[in-house]
Amino acid sequence: MNTPGTGGNGLPDLPPEWGRVVVPDDASALAQEAAQVRRELRERARLAARRRFGALRQPLVWLVVAVLITLAGLAAVTRPGPTATPAEGVSSSPAAPPAAPTGRPLPALDLVDTGQNPVPLRSLLPMMIILVDGCACPERVSEAAAAAPPQVNLVAVTGGRSAPSAPPGGSTGTRTLADPAGGLRSFLHLSPRPDAAVAVLVDRSGTVVRVLPQLGPIETYRADLTALAG
């Protein structure tokens, strides 16, 4: 007995709108329809993949561009620049330190006395010069004046425009001069210090025999001072 919707083929529960359903005895008879169905399924899968790729393509393009820009910036930062070459005629080595004044001739400097009169410094050879522009150090000046032989002139040099009327400590036998231009300091390459005076011993030929950057007790230079009188 046939039921509605089966088309008399004895298959229940099939929708009536399907019409007559014929089941062949040989399954190979359905090969053509099966191939068509597989083609349709593959085509649908390809279309779905294309739609997904199309939705992701623009963000991927922007991501790739951003990565390329970042890599280019890193390469520009880390790439070493050109090595600077010294200009022609300019030495790349550090400047040589100034030559030590010991053993060099004292420059022909004109200082000024208490009356603003120029005094050629080399006219006082041999001599011991004590620079008191940073530290008056009267006790050191007095010690040197007491120990200096009569043949050796003791000169106290200040840095003002005029020399003081009396030497530091009021020591006798000391001549005070001023060095307004700072020629002695430039020659010695020594800056004034508030806690120490600088002494320079110059022989009869005008050669600097010793420089004392920090004038100490008389015992540290007595022999040099005596040698200047020889």
From TrEMBL:
Key word Transmembrane present: yes
Could you list the residue ranges that cross the membrane? 60-77
- Region Disordered, annotated ranges: 82-109
Sorted alphabetically, the keyword list is: Membrane, Transmembrane, Transmembrane helix
Q: What is this protein called?
A: Thioredoxin domain-containing protein
Q: Which organism is it from?
A: Micromonospora musae
Q: What are the top taxonomic ranks of the organism? A: Bacteria, Bacillati, Actinomycetota, Actinomycetes, Micromonosporales
